[in-house]
Amino acid sequence: MANYSEQEKAIREILPENTVKTLVPQEKVTRDVKFTPPRYRNEIARYIVHRNGKCKLCGKCAQLCKYNVHTLKPGYKYFGEPNNHLCIGTSCEKSGHYCIANCPNGALELKESSMYKTMGDYRWPADLILATWKMAETGDVPDSAYGYNYQCGNSGGGFDKLRFKFPDKPPVKLSEDEIDTSILLNKRDDGRPKIKIDIPWYGGGMSFGSVSNATQLSKARAAVAWNTFTCTGEGGYMERMRPYDEHVITQVATGLFGVREETIQRVPIVEFKYAQGAKPGLGGHLLGDKNTVAVAKMREAVLGISLFSPFPFHSVYSIEDHMKHIDWIKHVNRRALISTKVSTPTDVDMVAVGSYSAGTHIVHIDGGYGGTGAAPDIAKKNIAMPIEYAIGRVHNFLTDEGARDKVTLIASGGIRSAHDIAKAIALGADGVVVGTAELVALGCIRCSRCESGRGCPRGIATTDPELCKKLNIDWGTQRIINLYSAWRKEIVRILQQFGMRSVKELRGRSDLLMHLDYSNDVGVKK
Amino acid sequence: MPEKYHIKTQPVPPRMPRIGKYGIVDWREDCACCHNCVKKACVYDRYRQEADYIRSLSEVNALFFDCMGCLSCVQDCTKGILKMAVNPEYEKLGNSYWTADIIKTTWLQAETAKIPVSGAGYRGPFSGQGFDSMWTDMSEIVRPTRDGIHGREYISTSVDIGRKLSYLDFQAGATAKNPHPLVSIPMPLILDMTSDVHTLPQLDEIIIQTAVNTDIIAIIEWRNKPVDEKKLEHIAFYLGPDSPALPNELLKKTRLVEIADSPRVADRIKDIKAIHPKIVIAIRVDLAAGGIERAIELAQLKEVEVIHVSADLNGNEIGAAKPRFIKDMLRQIHTALIEKGCRDEITIMAGGGIALPEHVAKAIICGADVVTINLPVMIALECHLCSSCRPGMTCPAKLEKIDFQYGVGRMTNLVAAWHDQLIEVMGAMGMREVRRLRGDVGRAMFFENLEKETFGKLFGTRKSN
């Protein structure tokens, strides 16, 4: 592995202001969609097609099915197990190519999978997980024949009760090429780079330790492809991330694990993590089993012990202290933008304005229903408000204070789909941060066992050397690229329906939303 | 430095077969015998553990042990013969309020005394009824720790039970009024009487010993049974309308006693105080029709020190067609007492519907000084809440056979886990003392308020609720 740090160390002294822009050759990744099927032998599906002993191998099912559920591999005599995850199930009945009804021998049976019922939860129902897998596979939203609700979850509130009020027909007809989904991350005229990302979201912080390096690298490469960012989280900066430096946000959190001036100087954005939505006010927590040799080395910690990032920053007890923090980073890296990640207490609006006044470029609010690699159950549900409430408060308060167009507002904590992204923007955010959805694209089923033992058995949220092998970086990269592609297409469709040329026009347009539990008559003349 | 409050715990495994949420079933006899069985590759080693575990059972009735639900074996199986299912026994646990998930987490805490930790984000509904319609606050940059710099070890959870002076009056360098007697416990939790159906041998003794181990208090109905006088400090006898008379020598050795509400409650208090002036007396008020008004009325009597308001097991108003929830009733009582100017003089104990540790913090925010529980400690003993506790019915948890040490260990573990979680929530709020949390609704966010302030402005009137 190239020792990039040594290279930079030698050159740093001759650069002005002791500041290093990454000198590591940056890799390019294309954003082309490539069909990327799931990686398990038996994919989980909504329906199960069972071929019984009456099958005479006539092959009619394979001829009829346009979804490739039935395949006879060349040279094989018998059909393999049906590709259940491709089956559209009962919605096929009226299509004329329903294999179950058309099998001359009655050899095929269809039933709903018992596992479909065991999967998912209120926030991520099975439908949304399966739809996200499908998007990661194909790069577009699932065929309507599958009947998946890929737009929202089933939590009974917040985003799941918000809907867009689309006009009967778009006021202007726009092609996909005419629509801009980019957002600006630096709205201050402070001489720092005016960084623009091509899509209104970037990847959330996941530390090395909480997730595998294959996961981190897949996220980073997808960020390169889509000209957006990923975040290291608080767990050190892998040397293997260096070829993607220009698309990496490095995090400074209370434990300061792996934080060095040299790592801060690598990146275009540095994020202060004051709190995390899943465990606001409790700091970070990596359980001992996941503190492997590699993690301990990266974090400069003792092998096998639980690692806590205490809450809060014990050097920050006021906005003035916060400003000193920001000044420190700005001094260390003269080209970096500063992001401040906070949770959502009652006075989240005050916190946001305070952070803006301290000099941050990005205010990142992380709602109470955000993701985590490990958190006390009591924290996930009960502390701090959901992001849906916080976005509007912060947006309005920043507007009232005259600061709204000088700071970028990023929301996270339960953003699961393109529609969630669009709703968050309509409520007032400039863009969002996503995390769990990326992991779902990599095959996560949200079993909530990220913290157990050696970690995730799917090689996503683990640093166990054996389990890590289960996730291939190229496959992971393409799955996330595909998911991003599907989301962007869906956001473009939303903007097309409103006749908007830019996602920036959607910001704060809460008048385009309705809530299923409300009268929705504000501003309507009675 | 004073000794920190710490509950000593040790793991107490369950007596009964474990009931896991998920299980893997083979649904077709179509094994390829590939000798590469994914069961062996379970990263949690659950198959081997399950086999060993089931062999260790006296009767084989644990088909679902503790599958982690990762689906790896299902997806890797060569022939696709494995399927995951939700355990029907798991789904039978509890009821709509005391859900299977609550029972499972309570069992886990009773076994390990640890705070439940998991990966991924919150999985539940956006909000819900009762305590699920509020969120506790946390402190952020501008006020990271409102009570000053501290670690969790400096958070105090101790409370004083009794009547307090609203102010001190000094004359000639000394206080003019003598303070009322107070009972201090290191955690705002009291073990309440169990329901009538839970009449197990040794149950009172187990609960009392748990109170001793955790240095809190247990309310035990006085039934004229022998009692270990060394433990009287941790017992509050309940003297109901039909209870036999409590001997004066026992009364004089107790710190707290609870009496039933009655029209002549003030006289009853005077009678007890005449025997033992330093005792603290709580009055139990059922939150049935008129219960809230009665609690407010009692709080204004100068003789009254402590009021114990009690909702039904699910936290609802007792016997009401459209019951109010304990959280709302507490807020009503608390606010009324503030308006009457007597809130700080009275201690409010509240019980009913307290199922999880967050409910303790939330009940305190709504106005309780101390929270009382009974069902959670029964669930700690592996109770299924199956409502089969009647003569002739078989208890699936065989509660009638519990061992004293087992019972005490499980209950102690649960109280310890709850204490640790209370500390977590308080740490997040930046609170250093639980006494300061009482009635501090500024440390909480309520669903109806957030909806009104946020979505009400955008979308008009909320249709439901």
What does this structure look like?
The complex is a heterodimer of chains A (526) and B (465). With 526 residues, chain A is an alpha/beta fold. Chain A has two domains: 47-118, 2-Layer Sandwich (Alpha-Beta Plaits), CATH 3.30.70.20; 175-515, Alpha-Beta Barrel (TIM Barrel). Chain A contains 16 helices and 17 strands. In chain A, helix 13 links the parallel strand 15 (408-412) and strand 16. In chain A, helix 5 crosses helix 16 (473-498), helix 6 packs across helix 16 and helix 9 crosses helix 10. The longest helix of chain A has 26 residues, at 473-498. The radius of gyration of chain A is 24 Å and the shape is globular. The model of chain A has no long low-confidence stretch (mean pLDDT 90). With 465 residues, chain B is of the alpha/beta class. Chain B has two domains: 22-92, no CATH class; 152-451, Alpha-Beta Barrel (TIM Barrel), CATH 3.20.20. In chain B, 29% of the residues lie in helices and 15% in strands. Chain B contains 13 helices and 17 strands. Chain B has helices at residues 46-56, 72-76, 88-91, 100-112, 203-214, 248-251, 265-275, 291-299, 326-340, 357-365, 375-379, 404-429, 447-459, and strands at 22-26, 82-86, 117-118, 134-136, 159-162, 170-171, 174-175, 182-185, 189-191, 217-221, 235-239, 256-260, 280-286, 306-310, 347-351, 370-373, 444-446. In chain B, the strands form five sheets. An eight-stranded parallel β-barrel of chain B has the order 9-10-11-12-13-14-15-16, surrounded by four helices. A two-stranded antiparallel ribbon of chain B has the order 1-2. Chain B has a two-stranded antiparallel sheet with strand order 4-17. In chain B, helix 10 (357-365) packs across helix 12. Classes of the chains: A alpha/beta (526), B alpha/beta (465). Strand 14 (375-376) of chain A pairs antiparallel with strand 3 of chain B.
